[in-house]
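User: quick one
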Amino acid sequence: MYVLFQILDFQRALAVFRILDVGIQEDLIKQLPPHQLIQILNDLPPDDRTSLLSELPSNVVKDLIKQLNPEERKVTLSLLGYPEESVGRLMTPDYIDVEQDWTVEQVLTYIRDYGKSSETIDVIYVTDANGALIDDVRIRDFLLVDPKTTRVSDLIDGRFISLHVNDDQKETMQVFQMNNRVALPVVDDKNILLGIVTIDDVLWVAEEEYTEDIQMIGGTEALDDSYLEVSIFHLYKRRIVWLIVLFFGELLTITAMSNFEDQIAKVVMLATFIPLIISSGGNSGSQAATLIIQAMALDEISVRDWWRIMRREIISGLTLGLTLCTISFVVITCWHWFSPAFGIHYLRIAAVVGFSLIGVVLWGTLMGSMLPLLLKRLGADPAASSTPFVATLVDVTGLLIYFSFAILFLKGVLL
Amino acid sequence: MYVLFQILDFQRALAVFRILDVGIQEDLIKQLPPHQLIQILNDLPPDDRTSLLSELPSNVVKDLIKQLNPEERKVTLSLLGYPEESVGRLMTPDYIDVEQDWTVEQVLTYIRDYGKSSETIDVIYVTDANGALIDDVRIRDFLLVDPKTTRVSDLIDGRFISLHVNDDQKETMQVFQMNNRVALPVVDDKNILLGIVTIDDVLWVAEEEYTEDIQMIGGTEALDDSYLEVSIFHLYKRRIVWLIVLFFGELLTITAMSNFEDQIAKVVMLATFIPLIISSGGNSGSQAATLIIQAMALDEISVRDWWRIMRREIISGLTLGLTLCTISFVVITCWHWFSPAFGIHYLRIAAVVGFSLIGVVLWGTLMGSMLPLLLKRLGADPAASSTPFVATLVDVTGLLIYFSFAILFLKGVLL
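Assistant: Done. Structure below.
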């Protein structure tokens, strides 16, 4: 990768550098001679520089910022003052703002003189003498009118959408989707325009958010970098925590089952159905959990809808369970015709398995759907109710349901 | 919702209509008086109209298209000719194209006259007499030069990025991310410019793709609409297929376990560890599968990396398994001090559990990581190797591993 910077001219190399993964950027930085490194950092757009700096160890950052020229340093440091995951970290101060008493011709001349350093000129911002945002005007609106006779004040309608500097980055995606904009202004509490966020940065945020969600649903903590970039030790750390939590959860199944050792001793066959029963509960729970987590991520449902969701999931759980119950009756009956493994009481066995399936599927569905809502209500990330987590919760209760039905249907016959 | 169209003026109502879910749009369409419906359809941008029409039943679509004015009908029909999920379905033909011998002043006048119906004027397209794409020029480049003396040909460098009309929509997101554009031109095999795709449409595609992936990872087929919009029967259909497939997969665990009924009959305690063992395998498999699926979705890894991935996962699986093995030794030993449930051979029991954990975690990790790669190699969607699917596969083999270690360590002692 280093060779790149030696054979390409600087602007070209910079363009390549900007789209590299942060991991590779870091490696490059360590290899580059200092004078070239400073040139790169100075020429990076402030938002890209901030995201690079926030990934580097803090002592490396300090050394690097010292090497920026004074103006660039000020910009970078002010961007770094906002909390991670906030809109402040995403914004760039390279935009064009104009005053409302200018003519369109003045605006176009101003763009011609100062537009080169702006991240986008697709939207122009109108501010007052204090720097407070009055409106945003799309460049098309300037081009569609007569430049000599029209003033900026003729084009503004005061209806603009802005982001607050402390807003969560996650929510910007929906604001962009709903409003058909390529850039949005960022303001502080006093409506002072601080910077803009461009839609291409939001695409990256969206990708990162979804990646985090998918990794959490799969039961690992989110990786810091791409799969092949992170060290094996990092992979281990991000996975072992949940594996240990789930392991201790599963220890409860041992306690649960040790209550039924007598029953298993009498009817060993009961043990053979355990994986089938608890997996069916886990599977239906995983389905419900991912449906609800994703619907919440898309704002299709909120915690207030819990009762509507619960009603839907009770009906879904019952019908799904009934279907598996029917299948298990058919399978056990057919199985009995070919080989009498289940003995003369095969219909009672089928009843134990079938009714347990209705119970665990219904229970799994309810747990899977309600847990993400509960986590959200408690202020946690709903995606933490990962599929392995739901499956483990359902395992313990699934065993209790199963052995209760076993005692109910087999008491006095086999037990 | 219907009231909306009665109380708002038409343009405002249209703006609201555009951002509604397709399900609600359909309901509205059925309720609207015909003259208002035709007005809406005629005024929708072609790309939004296409996405609405492709969701409606085809006989409803036919009736509706008849009611469009001839020009709009032609546009809509030509958009509908491209396969679903293709770039052709996403594009709009409302763009501005200019010729290379025009002066910038001519271009700006042309924009003033024809720019109103264009979806974006942030990028202007340069075509030759046949309509073939020569270059795209950002509007800023026109504004930064002297309009009288500069010609379009002075601004072009022939380096443009275009999408092919049959490209997969999924891939457009990465093209936008990498190239910092708000719109991209769409061409056919002969490089004829057919339309443009704007970045806001890509945000919706990205959201849909991720939703599909997350639902598949959770073991359901993707829903057609938002969770509360679809019927309960639809919810049932999308979940039952995988539940039945997994159920039949789990039937194999019965076959596997029936081979070990003698062992369970002799040492009933063996049954109590089954949920712990198979869940640990399932959990580690789920983790590996989601990490690999997501890394593939982000193009961080490809099938060709399988050997590097396998090496990483073997090391990860072994270290994760060793950790759980250590914990289980500690837990069983402590447990033994407080209550002698495991008998005098508790260390042998611990060995069975501990070594089985190493085996199933390693096996789960390998299955979880290799299955998505295998599915991709076979041309299927890697996300189909859902966490429940991996867990079910690992259940059967996990039982075999467990009972093999049981026989190895307990033969002649308890068995």
